[in-house]
Amino acid sequence: MPHSVVIVEDEIAVAQLLADYLGQCDDFQVLGIATDKATASRLVALGQPELLLLDIHLPDGNGLELLGELRRQGVGSDVIMVTAAKEVAALEKAMQLGAFDFLVKPIMLARLDQALAKFRARHQQLQQGEVLTQSLVDKLLGTDSGASAASDTRLPKGIDAVTLSKVRQLFQEDPQAQLSAEKVGALIGASRSTARRYLEFLLTQHELVADLSYGSIGRPERCYRWRR
């Protein structure tokens, strides 16, 4: 099932951009958008989202205050703070309240991808029910040195080496290409959802970058290109 998300953002254009971007991901479902603190409280109470994209400055309050209230109510949603504020104190407070990432406006989509990849990894590791080890703690808290990751060449479940090589080759042969999951699926003879799984994996490995392509008709399409 897709991960449920609530977006709390007072700028409608930014909120819609985030919603459209997440809408291109098969593994995320936006439950709703709140442009103020009161609406956000109701949406979170009703939807119990797994992920909360939360702005700090809201017309009827403060996102950090809202997060504090939610924590006192026992809401355990993972939180990515989104703000134009650059105060170190805001970052420190967000971390104290359990936010696992912090995005500064204007939002760079590549950086948003990194935050979403971190969420996916955290969620997968917690769901696996592993025995608690220092290595697992380091991965969950983002303090892994990378040495163990570099030495572990095993691919995650659902990623086949042969198919991965085919997807990678498409971009290596044409580094300028910007391809959607649907296009990649057609080129390698796989479904759109399968292609997206491999594209998202390469994204987490920092081999690809993703952006939204705005055509003349319809919703924006998520496209991938080789990281130069």
Automatic annotation (TrEMBL):
Keyword Cell wall biogenesis/degradation attached: no
Keyword line: Activator, Cytoplasm, DNA-binding, Phosphoprotein, Transcription, Transcription regulation, Two-component regulatory system
Modified residues (4-aspartylphosphate): D55
KW Membrane (keyword) present: no
Residues of the Response regulatory domain: 4-120
Location of this chain's protein in the cell: Cytoplasm
InterPro entries (alphabetical): 2C-system_Tx_regulators, CheY-like_superfamily, DpiA-like_HTH, Sig_transdc_resp-reg_cit/mal, Sig_transdc_resp-reg_receiver
GO terms, molecular function: DNA binding; DNA-binding transcription factor activity; phosphorelay response regulator activity
GO cellular component, one term: cytoplasm
Protein name: Transcriptional regulatory protein
